[in-house]
Amino acid sequence: MSLQNMRTNRQIIDALRESDPSAVEELIDRYSARMQHFLRRRRFSETEAADLSGDIFLSVVQAVRRSALEREEALPAFVWTIARRRATMYRTEPRQTPRAESLQAAKAILAGMPEQDRELLVRYYLGEQTPEQICESFGLTAQQWGMVKTQTKARFFYERMRIPVQCVAGHQAERCVA
C-alpha cells in the first residue's frame, strides 16, 4: 500500500471495530516485517515466528474490537506490548491436560469443521507432523502457515466458546472463576 493510501491509526482502529478485513491486512502489512525481526531476535524459528505473529495479530484485533484501545497514538505501543507478552507466554505457558468433557467437545467441533481445517489442526496439535511438513504438504510458506493456522485455530475456539462446559463444581463454565 502506498503512503498516500495508508490510513491513520484512528481509521485503522475504527475499521477493525467494524470488522473490516482490509484493516486487518493493513495492520499486518504495517507491522509484519518488524514483527518477524522482533521474534527472530528472540530466537524463535522462522516457523515459530510466523505462527506466533499470527497469534499476536489476532490478539491485537480482538483487543481493539473489545475497545481495549482508545487513543490512536497508542496503537504502535499497544501492538508491541501484546507482542512482548505473547512471546513471553509462548515460552513459559505450561501444557495443560484436557478434561474428558473438553476432549468430547473438541471431537465434536473437529467433526463439524471443513476437512482441510480439521486435517491441519490434527496434524499440528496431535503431533503427527511438524509445521515444516505441514507447509510442504499444503504448499504453504512459513508466513502463510502462521496465518492459516491462526485463522483455523480462531474458528475452532469460536466454536468451542459456543459449547457450554461443566466446571469441576458442576456449574456452567460461565459461572466458574479460575
In short:
The protein has 178 residues and is an all-alpha fold. It is 68% helix and 0% strand.
- The CATH H-level homologous superfamily of the largest domain: RNA polymerase sigma factor, region 2, helix turn helix motif
Low-confidence segments: 165-178
Q: Indicate the CATH class of the largest domain.
A: Mainly Alpha
What's the N-to-C terminus distance? 44 Å
Strand content: under 5%
Query: What is the H/E order?
Result: HHHHHHHH
Helix content: 55-70%
**Major beta-sheet overview:** none
Average predicted confidence as pLDDT:
78
Reported by name, the CATH topology of the largest domain is: Rna Polymerase Sigma Factor, Chain: A
Specify the number of helices: 8
Secondary structure: number of strands: 0
Rg: 18 Å
Total number of distinct structural domains: 2
Helix/strand class: mainly alpha
Give the helices and strands, then pairings:
Layout: H1 9-17, H2 21-41, H3 46-65, H4 75-92, H5 100-112, H6 115-125, H7 131-138, H8 142-162
Helix pairs in contact: 1-2, 2-3, 3-4, 3-8
